[in-house]
């Protein structure tokens, strides 16, 4: 009896460890920002960016995802759609490094080892920690003293993924990150260049295409959802 129980436990653990499908991939695309400088378009990629990710497919509808991203951003009032910003003439560049953990929810069942479940639109919900430069202090002579800061964002996204060939698939995705910061563009009420139209927290976005490699044995999915 004891041996039978041990066998069942071992078999169950083996199914969990080796019976699932995993994915690794890289994305290439562009970023844009919405805040107090430049354009206010939520999808307007203008800086080359990318990421690498790992996914665990819990079942045909749910996948858990971890992502490391390199996300440069910039803004220029010359490209703005308001006279106030164009006349002000400010611009900036910044670089965001991000780590995100989250979940993809597939609208249809997705399993590239199956003949009829090889594509689906999906939504993505994540929590992200990101690092960026900000103006720690501005001297009376107008010199900016920069430092690094780590904060959090709530990214949501939409995408579409489909099998390419064999173990390879692709996806097209747009992510929208709402931050709890208002100084990604270096404009705050605390620096001497304060001249802001509105004063809300900044957003940054990524839109790109991913190449995905799937590995592991054919899926033995957990039921649910």
Automatic annotation (TrEMBL):
It comes from the Bacteria. Residues 3-222 form the DUF6089 domain. Pfam families: DUF6089. This is DUF6089 family protein. It comes from Polaribacter marinaquae.
């Amino acid at each position: 009896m004891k041996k039978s129980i041990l066998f069942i436990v071992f078999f169950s653990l083996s199914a969990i460890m080796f019976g699932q499908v995993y994915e690794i991939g890289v994305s290439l695309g562009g970023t844009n920002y919405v805040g107090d400088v430049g354009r206010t378009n939520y999808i307007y990629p203008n800086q080359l960016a990318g990421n690498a990710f790992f996914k665990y497919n819990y079942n045909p509808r749910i996948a858990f995802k971890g992502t490391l991203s390199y996300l440069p951003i910039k803004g220029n009032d010359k490209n703005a759609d308001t006279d106030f910003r164009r006349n002000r003439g400010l611009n900036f560049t910044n670089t965001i490094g991000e780590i995100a953990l989250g979940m993809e929810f597939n609208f249809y069942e997705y399993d590239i080892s199956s003949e009829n479940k090889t594509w689906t639109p999906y939504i993505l919900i994540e929590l992200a920690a990101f690092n960026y430069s900000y103006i720690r202090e501005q001297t009376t002579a107008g010199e900016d003293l920069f430092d690094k800061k780590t904060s959090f964002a709530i990214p949501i996204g939409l995408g579409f993924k489909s099998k390419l060939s064999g173990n390879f698939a692709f996806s097209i995705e747009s992510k929208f990150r709402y931050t709890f910061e208002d100084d990604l563009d270096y404009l705050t009420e605390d620096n001497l260049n304060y001249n802001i139209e509105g004063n809300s927290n900044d957003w940054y976005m990524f839109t790109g295409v991913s190449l995905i490699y799937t590995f592991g044995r054919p899926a033995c999915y957990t039921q649910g959802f």
